[in-house]
Amino acid sequence: MTNYKSALEATQFIKSKINNLNPQIAIVLGSGLGNFGDEIQDKIEIPYGDIPHFKKTQVIGHAGKLIFGKVEGVEIVCMQGRYHFYEGHTIQECVFPIKVFKLLNIKILILTNAAGGLNDSYESGDLILIRDHINMLGINPLIGLNEEEFGPRFPDMSITYTPQLLEKAKKVMKDLNISIKTGTYAGLRGPNYETPAEVQMLRTFRADLVGASTVYEAIVASHMNIQVLGISCVSNMGAGISKTPLSHQEIIDVSNSIKSKFSNLVKNLIPNLL
């Protein structure tokens, strides 16, 4: 079965559960950022395990369900937990929900993540707007059969992260008195954290952030002409910059410490994006 047919099956199942909701904004919540789901009103929750062709998530801090509802009166769908390549999923399984979003008529995708900070001006707990990425996964989700229903064989990636959304996000951050910082996100496979030498290499490449998600989702969304806004929470500074060993619990703890700031930003962003 093709990805398109599988995505159609998943879409048809989802539509049967959401009472004619027609969201145009989708949000993918990163590690420790799932609390934003509490901001959604009139919720309809669908566990990934119930949806045809969706896989279960395995990482702490990723609940594994779609939440449909409203934020500030705007219909949205929220992906509470994402798939990571390091979990053993294929790259196509990792991006499958994004393809379903396309068939659900999503126009804007907000990708969030917890990331390591590589830029000396960053601090743990900062919220960074992603302006571009570097794909260092060693794989691309567009490899293989190209299904024209999703997009062209050779898509342009010069504007993967939509400039207009970036400017709108900057304005909202200014209004909320949140420090405005932007950066380039480097995507690696994980699951281990980077070595000090790898961090130095990435800094040489002018990467500001590093993590194990987001890049493949952004590539597929751009391929399908979905506008993309990326937001990273700096959960730790990279190895060699930070003097302490890194742990996933640290990421969860930092994400929890800024959950109010993060939720407030996204809640105020949503009505300003369409």
From TrEMBL:
Keywords: Glycosyltransferase, Transferase. CDD domains: PNP-EcPNPII_like. GO terms for cellular component: cytoplasm. Phosphate binds at residues 31, 62, 82-84, 114, 213. Pathway: Purine metabolism; purine nucleoside salvage. PROSITE patterns: PNP_MTAP_2. Its EC number is 2.4.2.1. The keyword Glycosyltransferase applies. Residues 25-270 form the Nucleoside phosphorylase domain. GO terms for molecular function: purine-nucleoside phosphorylase activity. It comes from the Eukaryota. A purine D-ribonucleoside binds at residues 194, 236. GO terms for biological process: nucleoside metabolic process. Belongs to the PNP/MTAP phosphorylase family. The purine nucleoside phosphorylases catalyze the phosphorolytic breakdown of the N-glycosidic bond in the beta-(deoxy)ribonucleoside molecules, with the formation of the corresponding free purine bases and pentose-1-phosphate. Homotrimer. This is Purine nucleoside phosphorylase. It comes from Tetrahymena thermophila (strain SB210).
